[in-house]
């Protein structure tokens, strides 16, 4: 057991649970706070925008902090945010609490990804990042469905209380299991920002954003699709989300291994598969058993992108790995916010819920285009060299 990676994975589990569990609880939150479904969906967008806004701010604030202390400090902010979510009396208060919680997200995964890659051999970097992100995938297998079921039974606020406890455990594990001295990159944070301007770095960040838009256009409103289109009950919904989480876990681990093998071809293939599966989901969502198969496949392909996209950013921004990795998390969550907003716009415009997967498929094809363009720029750079 690589205990430092395990500690990072536990922290990722807590962060993943608080980010995604709100989607299964949206109908409960909307009912309790007296807001519409699109307004409740903005809680997903608010969190994601908090991540995107917090990425550069926390990157600057923590640039000179020792890596171990930075990660523990970020988990302390996570704990505070979840306490505020649990006691939120109004929709506005809850939105602010979600944004506070989100501020730690990008910096934690950004710094954590670099630390994970430092703890293993160079040819295992994507797998190490995938192992840390396994906490995020397990959050979708266990944290989200169990948190959803617990929230249905005991009230949605109780779920955030439990997540607060997970954050406390994670902070203790990080403090006790991470090495005292973790290598840090030298240099000036503002000089690092200049290296981010490179076209290939920007394309890599755009790829991460489009991957998230594709996923969150649909997953934000998955509770409504499963309940109103497929016909699952609230209890059955938790099991479907568990199956989706199982797909995410498989996709993350397999995607990490494949990314260490052939990064760009694998990313192209995965985006094609996402587009196909989401296109099918527009039709299979009417039937229970086909929906189960589609949800598993979608989860697998959607998360197979993550370790490869993270390593791609590190490879194209070698002069600023901590900043690039942190901004990539902001890029993912900018996509989360945009996807939740895009899905809400589609619903408000009167489009049926079954059109959301088609929109997600179209965005996945845009992601494919950015990967293809990035690969073309790589070939040009090699020829020039």
Automatic annotation (TrEMBL):
Q: Which Pfam families match?
A: MFS_1 (PF07690)
Q: Where is it localised?
A: Cell membrane
The Major facilitator superfamily (MFS) profile domain covers 4-379
Keyword list (alphabetical) reads: Cell membrane, Membrane, Transmembrane, Transmembrane helix
Q: What is its main location?
A: membrane
UniProt keyword Ligase present: no
Q: Where would you find the membrane-spanning parts of this chain?
A: 44-63, 70-94, 100-121, 128-150, 156-175, 203-227, 239-256, 263-283, 289-309, 330-351, 357-377
Q: Which SUPFAM superfamilies match?
A: MFS general substrate transporter (SSF103473)
Q: Give the record's membrane topology.
A: Multi-pass membrane protein
Provide one Gene Ontology cellular component: plasma membrane
The family database entries (InterPro entries) matched by this protein are listed as: MFS, MFS_dom, MFS_Efflux_Transporters, MFS_trans_sf
Which GO molecular function, any one, fits this protein according to its record? transmembrane transporter activity
Query: Mind telling me what this protein is named?
Result: MFS transporter
Q: Which organism is it from?
A: Herbaspirillum robiniae
């Amino acid at each position: 057991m690589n205990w430092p990676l395990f500690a990072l994975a536990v922290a990722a589990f807590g962060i993943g649970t608080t980010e995604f569990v709100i989607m299964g609880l949206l109908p409960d939150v909307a009912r309790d706070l007296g807001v519409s479904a699109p307004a409740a969906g903005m809680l997903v967008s608010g969190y994601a925008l908090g991540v995107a806004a917090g990425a550069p701010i926390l990157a600057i604030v923590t640039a000179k902090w020792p890596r171990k202390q930075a990660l523990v400090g970020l988990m302390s902010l996570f704990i505070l945010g979840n306490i505020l979510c649990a006691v939120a009396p109004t929709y506005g208060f809850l939105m602010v609490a979600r944004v506070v919680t989100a501020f730690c997200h990008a910096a934690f995964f950004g710094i954590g990804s670099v630390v994970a890659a430092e703890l293993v051999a160079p040819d295992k970097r994507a797998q190490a990042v995938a192992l840390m992100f396994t906490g995020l995938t397990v959050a979708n297998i266990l944290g989200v469905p169990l948190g959803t079921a617990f929230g249905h039974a005991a009230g949605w606020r109780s779920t955030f209380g439990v997540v607060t406890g997970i954050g406390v455990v994670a902070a203790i594990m990080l403090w006790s299991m991470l090495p005292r001295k973790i290598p840090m990159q030298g240099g000036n944070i503002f000089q690092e920002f200049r290296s981010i301007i490179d076209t290939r770095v920007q394309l890599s960040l755009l790829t991460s954003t489009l991957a998230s838009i594709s996923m969150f256009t649909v997953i934000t409103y998955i509770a409504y699709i499963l309940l109103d289109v497929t016909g699952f009950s609230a209890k059955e919904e938790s099991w479907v989300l568990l199956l989706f989480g199982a797909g995410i876990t498989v996709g993350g681990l397999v995607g990490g291994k494949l990314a260490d093998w052939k990064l760009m071809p694998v990313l192209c293939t995965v985006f094609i598969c996402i587009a196909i599966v989401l296109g099918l989901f527009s039709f299979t969502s009417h039937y229970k058993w086909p929906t189960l198969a589609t949800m598993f496949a979608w989860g697998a392909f959607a998360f197979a992108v993550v370790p490869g996209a993270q390593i791609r950013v590190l490879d194209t921004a070698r002069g600023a790995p901590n900043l690039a990795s942190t901004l990539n998390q902001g890029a993912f969550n900018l996509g989360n916010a945009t996807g939740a907003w895009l899905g809400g716009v589609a619903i408000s415009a009167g489009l049926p819920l079954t059109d959301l997967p088609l929109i997600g498929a179209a965005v996945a094809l845009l992601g494919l285009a950015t990967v293809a363009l990035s690969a073309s720029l790589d070939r040009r750079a090699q020829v020039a060299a």
